[in-house]
Amino acid sequence: MNPIIPFEPIRSDTVPLGDSWIYQIKWDGVRILSYCDDSAIRLYNRKKHERTAQYPELTERTYCRASSFILDGEVIALAADGKPSFHEVMRRDGIRNLSKVPQARQEVPISYMVFDVLYADGAWTHSLPLRERQRLLADLLVPGPFVQPVASHPDGPALLEVIRAQKMEGIVAKNADSAYAFGGKDERWVKVKNYGDLVAVIGGYTLNGGIVNAVLAGLYQGGRLIFIGKVGTGKLTAQDWVELTAVVGSIGTSECPFASRHPDMKGAYWVKPLLTAKIQYAEWRVEEGRSLRQPSIQAFVQVPPEECRFE
């Protein structure tokens, strides 16, 4: 059973309306597909990179009644405020020294929020309408300490208001009559976010007292790295900033990697464009040439820099 690239929603500022739509919370986590055949369960992310060892809680067959299956969902971890935190889940997903998994499992509990079933009992289900896949998922999924179904709601605008009040990520509207397209991304699924986020390349940094206190972020356009903002806040701890200082010191360069200079680059040190980070922001008027407003680092991620491009 080979891993597939999951279907992705497009982004919109408005909630699509109509009887054919259902609405779900957009969980701020890591997209994970669970594959089970006759031998074992394996976990892969949206890039088809294996994550089985990072989430041993999800390798028990007891959470699905099917003898074989592919489930699609989001692995989340909660912050101290009880809300999903991308920074927290990356403490699990980013583990490469697998001897650290048992301790991380205790420190960062996770939940698998399952929203689709693509294969069950030897048959592909992705071509079925979403409403039928939802009924099948309800019959097959066995909720437990680490696995929960994603609830569907009939009123998208009302759900979005609740999400905004709770300062969570957003919602996804899904056409209940639609099939699931492997590797697809179109208007069958629409995400409406409470705030924006993107993965950007780090091209420089500034220091305060010898410790990094901000990074300079950019995206590629036509092979050129375009500056999009100076980011000095976020979910990073004081120890994270100390560790980042050591990392950027090892990849420093005398040449500015950005296509042009910006006033926010005053006093900056340059690095080779090798690091990438998920950045959250309140607003970005890119068509006006503006920088990100109120950007904050959520976590450093293992995304190839060349994939960080203007859409």
TrEMBL record:
Keyword check for Cell cycle: yes
SUPFAM superfamilies on file: DNA ligase/mRNA capping enzyme, catalytic domain, Nucleic acid-binding proteins
Molecular functions (GO terms): ATP binding; DNA ligase (ATP) activity; metal ion binding
Enzyme Commission number: 6.5.1.1
Catalysis performed (reactions): ATP + (deoxyribonucleotide)n-3'-hydroxyl + 5'-phospho-(deoxyribonucleotide)m = (deoxyribonucleotide)n+m + AMP + diphosphate
Domain ATP-dependent DNA ligase family profile intervals: 103-193
Keywords tagged on the record: Cell cycle, Cell division, DNA damage, DNA recombination, DNA repair, Ligase, Metal-binding
InterPro entries, per database record: ATP-dep_DNA_ligase, DNA_ligase_ATP-dep_C, DNA_ligase_ATP-dep_cent, NA-bd_OB-fold
First-level EC class: ligase
One biological process term in Gene Ontology: cell division
Lineage, opening ranks: Bacteria, Bacillati, Bacillota, Bacilli, Bacillales
Annotated protein name in UniProt: DNA ligase (ATP)
